[in-house]
Specification:
Dihydrofolate Reductase, subunit A, binds NADP nicotinamide-adenine-dinucleotide phosphate, 3-stranded antiparallel β-sheet, alpha/beta
């Protein structure tokens, strides 16, 4: 499995159930990586998407403990059920896309993390794990700095050693 996330300097990922920033270049990068793939997200993240709708042209799997939850995408009620559901898929094709609770549970199963690093400290209430402090991960790719609407960021790929 892989994780894909955008973080600020403190590995913050969101505030008040929303993303911290909207960067067109990052959205394009996210789309390029996930189109045609399976994406796994928590119920809060689904509901934060535009119109609260699943993302087009991807196999959306949503985690919730609510047994009566909507039927416009695949639903999973536990970590174990999710792992079973994706076990026959190529793990290269399964992306964990958030939020905090879901990243935390599935990072141990991820061998690659695509991290968009924003060169700013923002006011976050949700966080990703700090991969720079984890000796199990190393950086295998780092883009140059990109600047959009006064925000500087770069794409960094971490791989489990
Ligand atoms: N920066 C980024 O790249 C990025 C990406 C995605 C999201 N975010 C941000 O992250 C924040 C949301 O994160 P969050 O931690 O609050 O919510 P979340 O992880 O998106 O969703 C949490 C919900 O998922 C369900 N869930 C999680 N684990 C489960 C399990 N093992 N079994 C069954 N259901 C499970 C539960 O839903 P029920 O309550 O329905 O049971 C839980 O309340 C927002 O601010 C969002 O914008 C940022």
């Amino acid at each position: 499995m892989k994780a894909i996330v955008v973080v600020d300097k403190n590995w913050g990922i969101g505030r008040d159930k929303k993303l911290l920033v909207h960067l067109p270049g990052d959205l394009k990068y996210f789309k390029e990586h996930t189109l045609g793939k399976t994406i796994v997200m928590g119920r809060e993240t689904l509901e934060s998407l535009p119109g609260g709708r699943p993302l087009l042209n991807r196999n959306n799997i949503v985690l919730t403990r609510n047994k009566g939850y909507r039927a416009d995408c695949s639903i999973c009620h536990s970590k174990e059920e999710l792992l079973k559901m994706v076990k026959d898929e190529n793990t290269e094709e399964v992306f964990i896309i958030g939020g905090e609770k879901v990243y935390k549970q599935f990072l141990p199963y991820c061998d690659t993390c695509y991290v968009t690093k924003i060169d700013k400290t923002l006011d976050a209430d949700k966080f990703f794990y700090n991969l720079d402090e984890d000796e199990n991960f190393s950086v295998v790719y780092e883009s140059g700095v990109i600047e959009e609407d006064g925000t500087r960021y770069k794409f960094v790929e971490y791989r489990r050693k």
